[in-house]
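FORM 7B: Structural annotation worksheet

SECTION A. Query
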Amino acid sequence: MSLKKRYFKSDMKFFSNAAIAIIIASTTALSGCQTSTVLNGGYIVDQQSLALVPEGSSREQVLLSLGTPSTTATFDGEVFYYISQRRQRSMAYQKLRVTAQSILAIYFDKDGVVTRRANYTLQDGKVFDTISRVTPTGGRELTFLQQMLSGGSAANAAKSLFGGGAGGTPQNPSSLR
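SECTION B. Predicted structure
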């Protein structure tokens, strides 16, 4: 005696609706993953404007032709930097990656005359961080907990606040008069 499973109309309708729902959900989920993002930022070098600034041009001519620089440097003569970056990611949840970078540097002498022009790319050095606006410093950044465990400045502040400092008791501002 062989047993054969029988399917009813209601079972078939359920399976077909479930299959359609799975196809729609997977298509929607996969279409969201294929989104790539390209962000261009900074100064885009225009060859016509750059041709208006040959060596020997004045600082004012550079400002009129190229506009305000992204940043300037005043060490050993003045330098105008025009910075541009192209960042992209292939999926919506990924971190942006710098794929192209261009830094146009216009060097001036002490009289404000262009001495040379240079165009640096990503292959010439490190990535120039134009977004964070944070000056990198030497040393380590410690969290509050790391400072407490190492006896750093936060630990000293907590000790003086709770009476563990050099005085033995917390300082009352009214008693200091």
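SECTION C. Observations
The CA atoms of residues 101 and 119 lie 10 Å apart. The first helix runs from residue 9 to 33.

SECTION D. Sign-off
Analyst initials: ____
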